[in-house]
Specification:
The structure holds two protein chains of two kinds. Chain A is mainly alpha-helical. Chain A has 14 helices and two strands; from the N terminus they run ααααααααββαααααα. In chain A, helix 11 packs across helix 12. By secondary structure, chain B is of the alpha+beta class. A three-stranded mixed β-sheet of chain B has the order 6-1-8. Chain B has a three-stranded antiparallel β-sheet with strand order 2-5-7. Chain B has a two-stranded antiparallel sheet with strand order 3-4. The mean pLDDT of chain B is about 85. Chains A and B meet through helix 3, helix 12 and helix 14 of A and helix 1 of B.
């Protein structure tokens, strides 16, 4: 029974496909999987927008949306109707074709990333040997759509937003890849299903997730920073900094095209959280060995929602960075730490099972962090601000 | 240590997040149309005209001097001066506004009209639910819509209204004393002329 619940969606797919003639079955099963992903994640997006608004409100001691439906839960339906019925404005001098394609390219590229994420035991659309590589290839093409949007709008705010977005996304792509490479170094595989399986065993009832190793913890922190920047979330939301750039690269978008951008942004947040879950938090595996009877997909989605909650929490806490702070942080702090972490992973891999590797690896990482923060904070005067021109 | 401040901030927002569910006094906003907070005494929205007594037309303090019309930065006030004169609150003959319109779609609530008025005739209202389906006629208030009693002024700005009343009372007393003095002088003069004649 419990096994059936765990494999519920897989069995459902097999059962539905079994009605078709044999030669149609492979294609039909893929179509079913795609349909499931394409309907599930936008639904999750709709829920997340409400929870984000309510969570931010609570963080700021407000009540939040509570008008549409019970506790405001039907708000996304109202928002959807609004964005569908709004006028779709295209600037007169915009490059109409590219302007139209940009949101489509974004959503398509983001959806492609979900294809390789294992969302439960045997629940992966395409079990690719180079799944991680495919994921990053797809993730990198979202930058293209952002620049398409900024360039085709023919608006200074859009272009500036797109320039910022591209600079930011390319800078943070490097730590994102380098922190993921650590996992590949340990598992020796680019396949995401193999990476999950490598973490899915227990000793003393506790799982062997990579976040519970010194290098994994460091890589996870770097990964979290890089994903926040990759998905243009606060505090790295410079590309759409509304106080400076109106709305950044989607300034000239209205109606459903704007909604598509919004959808693409949240979907990329989901998919990148899903990848982080897969790489460091054991994917669909249970956090304790006595909880392995709970269906695997429940674990995957609860970890995903936990990451989303942390994204919202960060957004409610941190102010937006300046462009130079953003770049300095990427190239002077996150990147060196990632490179050092690669070295530490090499140490970990070849030092055997001794307790010494725990001590050594932790000491190297902590020492590097402490000395780096000493260097960074050395000349920083932290106290009441003084304004040079406002005395 | 780097990142210490971020952790402190995260702790603070987490306290807000959970605290706002448990203690209602944390919440800074209320569910608006069902629950209302009384407007602050210093609140100001759009101007209104004060009248004394019960009759809004006779009691208007405004003497159509048009200072506010001239000072208004966005020029949202339109005044037509009357041709005849009517006695004001003190009893002195004054002009009155035959027309006094304020276009609240133009008004920017700067309160300059209130500052320049020498007759305490125009004050700021706290009424803010002014939405209308007619954006031209509905937002152009004429003098009847603008006229509010002094009691209403006391209700919305009690401290200011008391101070204004005291000032007007001393002015009135001064004017009456002056008038009395003048009338006494006139009577004495008349008596003197009469005495001379005799």
């Amino acid at each position: 029974m419990i096994d059936h619940l765990d494999q519920f969606f897989v069995l459902l797919q097999h059962w539905l496909v079994s009605f078709l003639p044999a030669f149609l079955r492979p294609a039909a099963s893929i179509v079913l999987g795609v349909a499931a992903i394409v309907s599930l994640f936008p639904a999750l997006f709709a829920l997340t927008t409400v929870f984000e608004r309510k969570g931010l409100a609570r963080i700021q001691n407000r009540i939040g949306p509570n008008r549409v439906g019970p506790f405001g839960l039907l708000q996304p339906i109202a928002d959807g109707i609004k964005s569908l019925t709004k006028e779709d404005i295209v600037p007169l001098s915009a490059d109409a074709a590219v302007h139209f394609l940009a949101p489509v390219v974004l959503v398509v590229a983001v959806f492609m990333g979900f294809a390789v994420l294992p969302m439960g035991r045997n629940m992966v659309l395409v079990n690719m040997d180079a799944g991680l590589l495919f994921y990053f290839a797809m993730g990198a093409s979202t930058e293209l759509s952002v620049f398409m949007a900024g360039w085709s709008s023919r608006n200074k705010y859009s272009l500036l937003g797109a320039m910022r977005a591209v600079a930011q996304m390319i800078s943070y792509e490097v730590p994102l890849l380098l922190s993921s490479v650590t996992v590949v170094m340990i598992t020796g595989s680019l396949s995401l299903t193999k990476i999950v399986e490598a973490q899915n065993h227990y000793s003393y009832g506790l799982p062997h997730w990579y976040i519970f190793t010194p290098w994994g913890c460091a890589a996870f922190v770097m990964y979290a920073i890089a994903t926040t920047a990759e998905s243009n979330r606060s505090p790295f939301d410079l590309p759409e900094g509304e106080s400076e750039l109106v709305a950044g690269y989607h300034t000239e978008y209205s109606g459903f095209k704007f909604a598509l951008f919004f959808l693409g942004e949240y979907l990329s947040m989901f998919s990148i959280s899903g990848l982080g879950t897969t790489l460091f938090l054991g994917g669909w595996s249970a956090p304790f060995s006595f909880l392995t009877w709970v269906p695997s997909w429940i674990w995957f989605f609860s970890k995903l929602m936990l990451s989303i909650f942390i994204f919202i929490w960060l957004r409610g806490t941190l102010p937006r960075l300046r462009q130079d702070q953003l770049m300095n942080f990427a190239w002077k702090f996150v990147l060196p730490m990632c490179l050092l972490n690669l070295l530490v992973v090499g140490l970990w891999r070849f030092m055997g099972d001794a307790w010494l590797r725990w001590v050594l690896c932790s000491a190297v990482l902590m020492g590097a962090y402490a000395s780096m923060s000493w260097v960074e904070m050395r000349r920083k005067h932290i106290g009441p601000r003084s304004y040079r021109n406002a005395e | 240590m780097l990142g210490e401040g971020i952790l402190k901030g995260l702790a603070e927002t987490a306290r807000n997040f959970f605290g706002s569910y448990f203690s209602a006094e944390r919440l800074t906003t209320v569910v608006y149309p069902e629950r209302r907070i009384a407007p602050f005494e210093a609140a100001r929205v759009f101007p209104f005209l004060v009248y004394d007594g019960a009759d809004w037309q006779g009691g208007l303090r405004c003497v159509a001097c048009q200072i506010c019309e001239k000072e208004c930065p966005p020029k949202c006030i339109y005044i037509e001066k009357s041709t005849d004169k009517k006695p004001d609150a003190i009893g002195k003959l004054q002009f009155y506004p035959a027309r006094f319109d304020i276009d609240i779609s133009v008004c920017m609530s700067c309160q300059i009209c209130v500052e320049v008025c020498p007759f305490e005739a125009i004050k700021m209202n706290t009424e803010f639910e002014l939405s209308t389906t007619d954006r031209f006629g509905g937002l152009l208030l004429d003098r009847q819509q603008l006229a509010k009693s002094n009691d209403y002024y006391h209700q919305i700005h009690p401290a200011d209204a008391t101070a204004v009343d005291a000032r007007l009372a001393t002015e009135k007393a001064k004017a009456e004393a002056k008038a009395k003095l003048a009338s006494v002088a006139v009577a004495a003069k008349a008596a003197a002329i009469a005495g001379e004649g005799a």
